[in-house]
Amino acid sequence: MSDDKRLFSRHYLNSLHPLDKATREFIGDKLQSETYEKGSLICEPGDILDRIFLIKRGLVRGFYRLNGAEITSWMSCEDEFFSTGGFFKRAPANEGIDALETAQVEFLRFEDFQEAISRFPDFLMLFNKMIMEYYAAAEIRALLSRIPGAAARFRFMVSLHPPGLVERMPNKYLASYLNMRPETLSRLIKSAEKGGDSSSNPLAVDGWRPWK
User: Fold this and answer.
1) For 154, what's the count of Cα atoms within 13 Å in the CB-facing half-sphere?
2) What DSSP line would sit under 88-130, residue for residue?
3) pLDDT of 148-184, one tens digit each?
4) Using an 8 Å Cβ cutoff, are 164 and 210 in contact?
C-alpha cells in the first residue's frame, strides 16, 4: 500500500479514536484498496462478505430484494464505513450492496479485523465507537420509516444526511429509501424548487438545493 493510502487511513481512523503507533502500523499494513466502478455489485444478497470498508471517494447503497423489487435500506459516502450485518458473524448477508458512483474504498478483511481487536485495546475502543455509530444510524432509519407523510420524511432525511448526498442519489433509489412512489418524490422536488418559507413549504431546508 502506498504512503498516501496509509496516511489517509491512519488520519481518518486516528480522528475517530487515538491509536498507538503499533496499531497504526498494523492497520497500514493490512488495509487493502479497491475501486468499484459505477453500477458494480459489491455484495449479492446471500453472499458472505468478509470485508469492512472505508469509503475514500464515491457513493454506495444497501438494498433488499422483496417480491422482485429492490428496496434501498441505506446509503453511504466519503469517510463512512460500511459492510453487511453478517460481517461480524461471517454469516450470509440479507442485503446487497452496489456502487451508485465509482467508489474508491479501503478495507480490512475479517481475519485482520478480528486480529486487530484481539491484539490492540485501542482498536477495540475504535470498534466500540463504530458500533455506536452503526446503532445510531439504524435508529435514525427506523424513525424515518415511521414518520407519517412523504414531505415530512423527505425533509427529515435531507436535514440529517451530509450536504450534497441527497442530490447525488438517483431518484428511483431515493424514492425507495423514503418508501414513496417516484412520482411523489418528483412532485416534492418540484415543490422544493419553488422555494418558500418553512411554514408554507415543508421541504424548505437551509443550504439545500434540489438536483436536476
Assistant:
1) 28
2) GGT---SSEEEESS-EEEEEEEHHHHHHHHHH-HHHHHHHHHH
3) 999 999 888 888 777 778 789 999 999 999 999 999 9
4) no
